[in-house]
Design brief:
The chain is mainly α and about 260 residues long. About 55% of the residues lie in helices and about 10% in strands. It has a three-stranded antiparallel β-sheet with strand order 1-5-4. Strands 2-3 form a two-stranded antiparallel sheet. The two termini are about 35 Å apart.
Length: about 260
Amino acid sequence: MIRRPPRSTLFPYTTLFRSRRYADAIRTFSNILLYIQRTEQMFQYRTFQCDQINKQTDQMYTLLAICLLLHPQRIDESVYSKLSEKHNNKIMRLQRLEEAEFQNSFCYACPKFLSPVPPDYDAPALDYHMDPLTLQLQVFMDEVRQQIILPTIRSYLKLYTTMPITKLAAFLDMKEDAFRTCLLCFKHKMKNIVWTKGTSGLEGEFQSGSEVDFYINKDMIHIADTKVARRYGDYFIRQIHKFEELNASLKALPV
């Protein structure tokens, strides 16, 4: 019997994304997309399932691209390669912080929203069906605008170990007080609730997801690199398996 992720289990995980639990959202999307990659051959002759899975897979790749921009971290290499292959242009526009691309990607990938409040049936007939989406889009874009300067700050922090606040603020053409606020925003946004153990997906602990950490002593920023060294073992194991499969296929060919 062919098993696949049920439809009802795919998009409820977007609540993690909308709750700013980006680490959990990235982990969940990556696991589902990796499962689909490994089982996609099972559905190539099932048209109705293939169309549905392809659409939802594309939507999850879009949400994953947004999550990785707002909360950068390492993911499975095969998932990242597929993401770069299918959505390279979209990723480049998101990296350029184009608000129109954020809006289009969110509207395409998000599920259908329903209003918890019934309409006023005594009022004149108006089109209210887009109000829930408009509200959710406004909340999402407010979050994006709060983080729009953070990738630039992150790129500068990676280059130094110590740096005066006034100097970095001058690089960004910002006033010192405004830049201090941005640094506090960076600390706040990079600290999310992350699931660690337990049966409830709502449980978790506050963890920092940034690969750079810093503290301020008087007017000096002290930066520490918390990035974990890349592991190459999984990559070589996958390549060995691919080579063995290719070798077995070549031996099976008639000479």
